[in-house]
Amino acid sequence: MDRSAEFRRWKAQCLSKADPSRKGSVDEDVVELVQLLNGREQFFTTSSCAGRIILLDRGINGSEVQKQNCCWLLVTHKPCVKDDVIVALKKANGDAILKFEPLVLHVQCRQLQDAQILAVRSTHGLEVPLTHKGKLMVTEEYINFLIKIANQKMEENKKRIERFYNCLQHALEKETISMTSYPKEKIKEKNNSSCTHKKKRNPEKACGKYITEGNNKELEIDDHDDPGISVTIFPEDY
């Protein structure tokens, strides 16, 4: 089986589908990043979010926050204001949670070596309960304080996206130069050797079935400076 051809077919199939997100389109702040990845034959994105401030009502049963079962009182990909949050909170019947979520980017990779240039992690988030059983548990002054923090995180998140885009673009350009100046036979031999080595170290993480965050030092930035991203290697039985 020609795995490269299979990956291309899978990529075309996935990218031809309608955007399943609530918004129905890619967020403006990550359009260039998504296009950069989808323009490379070894990658494609399956979902993304540039970052957002959301207010969720998880109902009155006290269960953990699960977005698919929550009432979305407010969602914005831009900085928000206190009045919008206060108005949205009046609709809460259970435990309302104010959250900031940074960049989320899910990327499918053709093989392990393609994933190794993507190495980013982050804890740049915010999650604070505001109501309990529909009753507001904090002051408006505190809500205003939280919104300022959330908006600051939103602005910092945008800067991190720009830095990540620039670092990724540089890494991909460097990889392209390296690939074009390296004999194809040597590349194939190196890839096969890499797969064999991985199998010897851990049979359960065989080539084509490996999920990783990546660990290439060329793109790796300090943990406090980069957004979140998950990378999945092209599976054999997608």
Automatic annotation (TrEMBL):
Keyword vocabulary terms for this entry: Methyltransferase, S-adenosyl-L-methionine, Transferase, tRNA processing
GO terms under biological process: methylation; tRNA processing
Region (Disordered): 188-209
Molecular function as annotated in GO: methyltransferase activity
EC number: 2.1.1.282
Pathway: tRNA modification; wybutosine-tRNA(Phe) biosynthesis
Domain of life: Eukaryota
Protein family (similarity comment): Belongs to the TYW3 family.
Protein name from the UniProt record: tRNA wybutosine-synthesizing protein 3 homolog
